[in-house]
Design a protein that fits this description.
Length: about 130
């Protein structure tokens, strides 16, 4: 089995796509007005309109109603990303800090309220832990 993507359901695809294009510095692929994918080397972030949930017959997904998932992206320099994103991010949860498990990280909310963590391994143990991952 191969992990394909994480999908965020929203009522405003354009707003969320624009936000993530700026955060991830990648252009979204838009195969339909109600769906987009931001393809990165290590993962794909999909964004779908709440109308798309009905196509799956799954009426349980609700836009802007998730408080259990953190989207995490490994970056080269957390502090530089923090400075770059200051004008874009409306709600910072955690300014740059080194976590007990050895990652330097920032945590913020996207326009839908989803948590986003940008991190970089900085201790020797954390660097070794991520050494074999792409």
């Amino acid at each position: 089995m191969k992990f394909a993507s994480v999908r965020i359901i929203t009522d405003d695809v354009d707003r969320l796509v624009s936000f993530y294009e700026k955060v991830l510095e990648v252009s979204a692929e838009r195969p339909a007005p109600v769906f987009a994918e931001l393809v990165l080397p290590s993962c794909t972030l999909a964004i779908g309109h709440s109308q798309t949930v009905q196509l799956f017959g799954a009426g349980s997904a609700e836009a802007a109603n998730n408080r259990t998932v953190i989207l995490e992206f490994r970056v080269h320099d957390v502090d530089a990303e923090y400075e770059r994103l200051k004008p874009l991010v409306g709600e910072w949860v955690k300014e740059p800090a080194t976590m007990p498990w050895g990652n330097r990280a920032i945590l913020f909310r996207d326009p839908e309220g989803n948590l986003v963590n940008l991190f970089a391994p900085v201790t020797e143990e954390a660097i070794q832990r991520f050494g074999g991952r792409r």
